[in-house]
Specification:
This protein is an alpha+beta fold. Helix content is about 20%, strand content about 35%. The model has no long low-confidence stretch (mean pLDDT about 90).
Protein backbone atom coordinates (compact mmCIF):
# COMPACT_ATOMS: atom_id res chain seq x y z
CA UNK A 1 0.00 0.00 0.00
CA UNK A 2 2.78 2.44 0.90
CA UNK A 3 4.75 1.81 -2.28
CA UNK A 4 1.78 2.85 -4.44
CA UNK A 5 3.03 6.32 -5.32
CA UNK A 6 0.13 6.53 -7.79
CA UNK A 7 -2.49 5.92 -5.06
CA UNK A 8 -1.61 7.84 -1.88
CA UNK A 9 -5.31 8.31 -1.12
CA UNK A 10 -5.38 4.58 -0.38
CA UNK A 11 -4.43 5.48 3.19
CA UNK A 12 -3.73 9.23 3.32
CA UNK A 13 -7.10 10.59 4.35
CA UNK A 14 -6.36 14.22 3.44
CA UNK A 15 -5.90 13.36 -0.24
CA UNK A 16 -9.04 13.45 -2.36
CA UNK A 17 -7.49 12.27 -5.63
CA UNK A 18 -4.20 11.71 -7.41
CA UNK A 19 -3.24 12.13 -11.06
CA UNK A 20 0.07 10.93 -12.46
CA UNK A 21 1.70 13.74 -14.47
CA UNK A 22 4.86 11.81 -15.41
CA UNK A 23 5.87 8.16 -15.08
CA UNK A 24 3.86 5.24 -13.78
CA UNK A 25 4.52 5.68 -10.07
CA UNK A 26 6.94 2.76 -10.09
CA UNK A 27 9.91 4.61 -11.51
CA UNK A 28 12.17 7.27 -10.05
CA UNK A 29 11.18 10.71 -11.27
CA UNK A 30 7.46 9.91 -11.47
CA UNK A 31 5.41 13.03 -10.71
CA UNK A 32 1.93 13.07 -9.18
CA UNK A 33 -0.50 15.88 -8.54
CA UNK A 34 -2.67 15.35 -5.51
CA UNK A 35 -5.89 17.17 -4.80
CA UNK A 36 -6.37 17.75 -1.09
CA UNK A 37 -9.63 17.63 0.85
CA UNK A 38 -11.31 20.87 1.79
CA UNK A 39 -10.44 22.37 5.14
CA UNK A 40 -6.68 22.23 4.64
CA UNK A 41 -4.73 25.43 3.90
CA UNK A 42 -4.03 24.14 0.35
CA UNK A 43 -5.81 22.50 -2.55
CA UNK A 44 -3.00 20.85 -4.52
CA UNK A 45 0.46 19.40 -4.12
CA UNK A 46 2.85 18.26 -6.86
CA UNK A 47 5.23 15.53 -5.73
CA UNK A 48 8.15 13.64 -7.29
CA UNK A 49 9.25 10.11 -6.45
CA UNK A 50 12.93 10.24 -5.53
CA UNK A 51 13.54 6.66 -4.42
CA UNK A 52 11.55 3.43 -4.29
CA UNK A 53 13.50 0.42 -3.05
CA UNK A 54 11.42 -2.72 -2.46
CA UNK A 55 14.39 -4.66 -1.09
CA UNK A 56 15.27 -2.01 1.51
CA UNK A 57 11.60 -1.02 2.05
CA UNK A 58 12.23 2.69 1.48
CA UNK A 59 10.23 5.34 -0.36
CA UNK A 60 11.35 8.96 -0.67
CA UNK A 61 9.38 11.74 -2.32
CA UNK A 62 9.75 15.50 -2.57
CA UNK A 63 7.13 18.19 -2.93
CA UNK A 64 8.00 20.22 -6.01
CA UNK A 65 4.94 22.46 -6.30
CA UNK A 66 1.43 23.25 -5.17
CA UNK A 67 -0.46 26.00 -3.41
CA UNK A 68 0.82 25.30 0.09
CA UNK A 69 3.63 26.48 2.34
CA UNK A 70 5.66 23.25 2.61
CA UNK A 71 8.76 24.38 0.77
CA UNK A 72 11.64 21.99 0.08
CA UNK A 73 9.67 19.18 1.76
CA UNK A 74 11.21 15.72 1.47
CA UNK A 75 9.66 12.64 3.06
CA UNK A 76 11.37 9.32 3.76
CA UNK A 77 9.20 6.33 4.67
CA UNK A 78 10.82 3.11 5.84
CA UNK A 79 9.36 -0.23 6.92
CA UNK A 80 10.93 -2.40 9.62
CA UNK A 81 10.11 -5.78 11.11
CA UNK A 82 8.86 -5.33 14.68
CA UNK A 83 11.33 -7.45 16.65
CA UNK A 84 9.22 -7.27 19.81
CA UNK A 85 6.34 -9.26 18.29
CA UNK A 86 8.44 -12.42 18.10
CA UNK A 87 7.64 -13.30 14.51
CA UNK A 88 3.97 -12.28 14.47
CA UNK A 89 4.56 -10.48 11.18
CA UNK A 90 4.06 -6.94 12.46
CA UNK A 91 5.71 -4.03 10.70
CA UNK A 92 6.82 -0.67 12.04
CA UNK A 93 6.44 2.23 9.59
CA UNK A 94 8.58 5.30 10.14
CA UNK A 95 8.09 8.50 8.19
CA UNK A 96 10.61 11.27 8.61
CA UNK A 97 10.83 14.57 6.80
CA UNK A 98 12.74 17.77 6.25
CA UNK A 99 11.03 21.03 5.35
CA UNK A 100 11.91 24.71 5.28
CA UNK A 101 10.13 26.94 7.77
CA UNK A 102 8.11 29.46 5.74
CA UNK A 103 8.38 33.17 6.42
CA UNK A 104 5.82 34.28 8.96
CA UNK A 105 5.75 30.87 10.63
CA UNK A 106 7.78 29.28 13.38
CA UNK A 107 9.64 25.99 13.41
CA UNK A 108 7.24 24.75 16.10
CA UNK A 109 4.12 25.62 14.05
CA UNK A 110 5.53 24.05 10.88
CA UNK A 111 6.55 20.85 12.69
CA UNK A 112 3.26 20.65 14.60
CA UNK A 113 1.24 20.92 11.37
CA UNK A 114 3.40 18.40 9.51
CA UNK A 115 3.57 15.97 12.44
CA UNK A 116 -0.23 16.09 12.77
CA UNK A 117 -0.79 15.23 9.10
CA UNK A 118 1.79 12.42 9.16
CA UNK A 119 0.39 11.04 12.43
CA UNK A 120 -3.14 10.93 10.98
CA UNK A 121 -1.84 9.21 7.84
CA UNK A 122 0.07 6.59 9.84
CA UNK A 123 -2.94 5.87 12.08
CA UNK A 124 -5.09 5.48 8.98
CA UNK A 125 -2.51 3.12 7.48
CA UNK A 126 -2.49 1.05 10.68
CA UNK A 127 -6.31 0.75 10.72
CA UNK A 128 -6.48 -0.27 7.06
CA UNK A 129 -3.59 -2.73 7.39
CA UNK A 130 -5.11 -4.36 10.48
CA UNK A 131 -8.46 -4.76 8.68
CA UNK A 132 -6.70 -6.31 5.68
CA UNK A 133 -4.79 -8.71 7.96
CA UNK A 134 -8.07 -9.78 9.64
CA UNK A 135 -9.70 -10.42 6.26
CA UNK A 136 -6.74 -12.56 5.16
CA UNK A 137 -6.83 -14.61 8.37
CA UNK A 138 -10.59 -15.23 8.09
Amino acid sequence: MIRRFDNPQGYKQFIRSCTMRAGSGDDIGSVREVMLVSGLPAKTSTERLEKLDDDMHIMIFSIIGGDHRLMNYRSTTTLHVDKETKGDGKTVVIESYVVDVPMGSSKEDTCCFTDTIIGCNLRSLARISEKMACMIRN
